[in-house]
Amino acid sequence: MSAAPVRGELWWCEPPEIGRRPVVVLSRDAAIPRLRRALVAPCTTTIRGLPSEVVLDPGDDPIVRRCAVNLDSIESVSTAVLVERIGALSGMRMREICQALEVAVDCR
């Protein structure tokens, strides 16, 4: 890991059982160094159009291919598997992610 992850950042995640994939960090900043874990949502190029996903676009977001943040598949990972920072999402995009997370966990 090159630096401590921050909420709203995109990172390359390399869990040994799955391999390299981009994820969005969802955990609050204060919790990450204490727990040495982060709640993350994976990004996928399979876009289903679900209300529990948020589409990221090159040009608007720090990615090279159009993809979706899948809030139905959030998980807690060790910060040791967050190996490279890709970039940070805008505040507007993070608000969209929070709304999709509400849908994913039925907290409306």
UniProtKB/TrEMBL annotation:
Gene3D superfamilies: 2.30.30.110
Annotated keywords: Toxin-antitoxin system
One GO MF term: DNA binding
One GO term (biological process): mRNA catabolic process
Domain of life: Bacteria
InterPro entries according to UniProt: PemK-like, Plasmid_toxin/cell-grow_inhib
Name of the protein described by the UniProt record: mRNA interferase MazF
Keyword flag Mitochondrion: no
Key word Isomerase present: no
Family: Belongs to the PemK/MazF family.
Organism: Ilumatobacter fluminis
